[in-house]
Amino acid sequence: MKITSLAAAGMLALSACGTTTAGSTTGGSESSSSASSSSSASAPSSSSSASPSAASSEGTATSSGAYTAAAWALPISDAGDKLGTLKGDSFSVDIYQVATDVASKDSMFVDKETKENLLKKGAPVVYLNYVVTNTSSADIPLSHSLVTPSAKYTDWKYLGGMPSDSSSDGYKKHGLSSSGTKLKEKAPFVLKPGESFNIAENFAYTAGKETEIKATLTPQDAAGDLDHDKKETADTTVTLK
Predict the structure, then answer these.
(1) How far apart are CA 202 and CA 138, in angstroms?
(2) Rounded to the nearest 5°, which phi and psi values hold at 173?
């Protein structure tokens, strides 16, 4: 497994690419950054976050199956097929394929040359849930960016991430959240040793595809800023069911 720096994905006018940094391990929002291909494609920025309603919580962590949820985290689900695990120096991410569904509307991502929408209404999408665990012996203070894994097919010809369904309804339908935290909770989100939280995403679905999952952890320092000197990035490859 390699731990590498994660290039920030932004809104991209698409140009040919194929960059990844890989490490091997066991194997709500429109979370895609943008799309860009060798034939070139473009997409405006879009982002949305979905989170089941929950009261703010203070106090101790709670047990949720095999995981211990942090006090600020939503209940953890290990439903679905476990596809694999990626591991950083101080954290791990268990990857679950929870459900497939269809896009509720056209995405905002269009190939520049073909003018084809990269995720049309009614096209299949897949929901992955990521359970992030602090595997170190020290507290990890996190900002609102938490640890946000993202998926991309290994043969994806567009720069950045993949288009997704930005509607919150699908997350609610499948008992998932694209935010990871309870409402009204404030940073820093301290993830204690052995504690976990979960966060989900959806994207255009093709069964049997090899998919690279990347995750970046950037802790928050005492001043409330991101401590980039302690940033960790890890990745792995899984195969969708």
Answers:
(1) 31
(2) -60, -40
Q: What share of the chain is helix, strand, coil (3-state, %, to 5)?
A: 5, 35, 60
233 contacts: CB under 8 Å, gap ≥ 6 = 3, 4, 5, 6, 21, 88, 214, 215, 216, 217
Q: Which two tokens stand for residue 90?
A: 């101080």
Neighbours of 185 (CB within 10 A): 20
In contact, 46 and 70? CB cutoff 8 Å: no
117 contact partners, CB below 8 Å, separation of at least 6? 106, 107, 109, 110
Among 1, 3, 55, 44, residue whose Cα is nearest residue 232: 3
User: Which tens digit of pLDDT belongs to each residue from 93-151?
Assistant: 999 999 999 999 999 989 988 999 999 999 999 999 999 999 999 999 999 999 999 99
Q: Is 64 helix (H, G, I), strand (E, B) or coil?
A: strand
Between strands 67-69 and 195-204, the pairing is: parallel
